[in-house]
Amino acid sequence: MRYIDEYRSPDILKGQLERIGDHQNSISLMEVCGTHTMAISRAGLRPLLAPTVDLVSGPGCPVCVTSERDIGKAIAMAGMPDVILTTFGDMMRVPGPQGTLVEAASRGAAVKVVYSPLEALALAEKERDMRVVFLGVGFETTSPLTAAVTLQARERGLDNFYLLSLHKLIPPALRALVTMEGFGIDGFILPGHVSVIIGSEAYSFLPEEFDIPCAVAGFEAADILQAIIRIIEMKEGGPAVSIEYSRAVRPEGNPKALDIMNQVFEPEDAEWRGIGTIPGSGLRLREDFRHHDAGAWEVDVPPAQAESRCRCGDILCGRIKPPQCALFAGECTPENPVGPCMVSTEGTCASYYLYDYRKGDDLD
Amino acid sequence: MCLAVPAEVLELKENDMALTELGGVRKDVSLMLVDDVKAGDYVLVHAGFAIEKIDKVEAEKTLELFEEIAKLDEVY
Amino acid sequence: MTEELVTMAHGGGGTRMRELLEEVVFPLLGEPLLMEAEDAAALTMPGERVAFTTDSFVVKPLFFPGGDIGKLAVCGTVNDLAMRGARPLYLTLGLILEEGLPFSVLEEVLRSCAEWSREAGVGIVTGDTKVVEKGMADGMYVNTAGIGVIGEGREVSIKGAAPGDILLVNGFIGDHEVSVIGEREGFDLQVSVRSDCAPLGGLVEAMQEAGDLHALRDPTRGGMAAALKEMASSSGTAVELVEEELPVREEVRAVCEMLGLDPLLLANEGKLVAAVPEEEAEKILEAMRGHSLGEDSALIGKVTDGRMGEVSIMTPLGSHRLLRMPSGEQFPRIC
């Protein structure tokens, strides 16, 4: 497969790993994209990078950071008689106050997994008697898509199409992270596909205000390793934002996609599960589009349960590693997840459990 | 939230759509978020939409850079 | 029969049902024992050790590239028998039809059952038909039970995998599920991959002629991951796969890249994974490659005495990762 296989060549990867291994000091780097977490784990990079590079996962898994109350809203809507809730597959097993979407479906709620929001639009066209709600989760990679689909809905007069926007933004989250007490990361591996949309200038505050070097990375193993090499170079040469995914990312991003996003959405404060409210970090539909806004509906959501010993918040901020959570690999496993970091396949805890940890290992 | 794959544009279709191909699999995708796409271009596809055109020149440069790094390490 | 659609009356036990059986079902299946239409088929079982299994089939859509629910129902049960080292002999066929199902569809499925039961060397000797209201059964559900005999020294169990064994698979994985995904409404994917649905009795026999099989499993729902996990757990061993050796077609890889799926979790309907003694692996692999259903057979890993039930994969870089055990449906992701 073109533009994929070439970047997986073991010869290139071995060469890059050696180059990284040559570096004397050890550093800790954070990636903030669930897809990066997965890619690193699947390629088996983490153990090969230690001890020179310690890779920490940040809050880059939109599934993990969606608040319990928001999932609760979606599940409550799915249960309404004239509603079909359409969603990406990623959200199906995330627990809300009433359980998961999978469980809601088994109780009779109309839930449909789609690959693209275009399918939700087509469904709205086909089922004019039903209200079709699309569960809009994801960062800036995905929000232009739901914006485009909402514009289409308006154009085609599909007033039975609604969007429940739970979209979040990466740069405000990064700012919240670096200003957190005790935050000690040497560099960021930035999300390649979010950056396709927003470009690299959005991250310039990181080197300029906080002296933190960062590199925009693609998703093949060679792309990730290249970003790491570059960050190490910048630690010595001077921090900046470097694009290491130039075949897809331009400094100005994708202006057309940004424009469509801005036509439909405006920023608002948003609650990130396990972290709290981050100002200006969410997207809501503008006034013009309120008639497609499922977020404006009155919905009965049961109160969220207190997650007492779940430490997803600390994990999402990179403060602790999964084995340091008392529940990890005991009460909390991928088969019986307690918190969202274990539910999502690319959540930090699930990733760690499946790829980096052996039963019986010492949990330090 | 970033699963996107590079696919080749085979032909443009009506309603701002295009037929694309990756590894022998064909799929219609929306071009609503990109401009100036033509057959033979490669686009990055996320959830049924092209979100950017792949810059073939940059792709080549990147690969050359990687190969260079790999060779350099062989020498040492 | 002049009707075009199945009605509730066809399941009612009266003359309509009689007509359905005598004019449609029996002629298409063509099995003498079946036509005797007794309450049960009385059979003589050669040998003493009998293998007995059942499976229900609810696939949607009913027809997909490379197969249909009828072929699946025959091969699925035949293969479960073959995985025990049994020679499959007889099948039952239970049909639950949705009211309004076109007869043309039913006939097509029955023809397929007949064709593939002949191919597999089994007789469909007894069965049942029910009709349920419109809206139920997704067109049709099928159940088959199968019975076969296990010859002397031929019995195989998944408990038998032993440390040091080599793991073999008879070809490309993930084909079946991808062929069905391509037909599923909404995803709008055009794939040319066909389902690998096939009866494996003959292949297993060829393998047993060539050497000793310690364990067999067919990786259907849950894919290779589930099959290997079950094999490792049942036999108290660990399994180590080599990622580069797994045979996966480019199209299947492409679909997995697009939808965020793992080829090891995809269902197969014409595959088996075998644990064989190291010294016999080459001979058995050769026998597999010489069989029409094993041309692309590959050596994919080994059984070890590591942590019980653990399945790990060696990446092209030489590092290891644990295989995720599927806990439920694999949904396409965008993350």
Describe this structure in words.
- The complex is a heterotrimer of chains A (364), B (76) and C (335).
- Chain A is 38% helix and 16% strand.
- By secondary structure, chain A is an alpha/beta fold.
- In chain A, the strands form 3 sheets. A 5-stranded parallel β-sheet of chain A has the order 2-1-7-8-9. Chain A has a 4-stranded parallel β-sheet with strand order 4-3-5-6, with helices on both faces. A two-stranded antiparallel ribbon of chain A has the order 10-11.
- The radius of gyration of chain A is 21 Å and the shape is globular.
- The relative contact order of chain A is 0.16.
- By secondary structure, chain B is of the alpha+beta class.
- Chain B has a single domain (5-75), classed as SH3 type barrels, CATH 2.30.30.140.
- Chain B has a 5-stranded antiparallel β-sheet, with no helix packed on it.
- Chain C is α+β, with helices and mostly antiparallel strands.
- Chain C folds into 2 domains: 8-150, 60s Ribosomal Protein L30, Chain: A (2-Layer Sandwich), CATH 3.30.1330.10; 158-322, PurM-like C-terminal domain (Phosphoribosyl-aminoimidazole Synthetase, Chain A, domain 2, Alpha-Beta Complex).
- Helix content of chain C is 30%, strand content 23%.
- Chain C has helices spanning 15-29, 32-35, 69-82, 103-120, 175-183, 201-210, 223-235, 250-259, 281-289, and strands at residues 50-57, 63-64, 67-68, 86-98, 123-132, 140-150, 166-169, 189-190, 215-217, 238-242, 273-276, 298-304, 311-314, 320-322.
- The longest helix of chain C is centred in the first third of the chain and has 18 residues, at 103-120.
- At the A-B interface, helix 1, helix 2, helix 7, helix 8 and helix 10 of A face strand 1, strand 4, strand 5 and helix 1 of B.
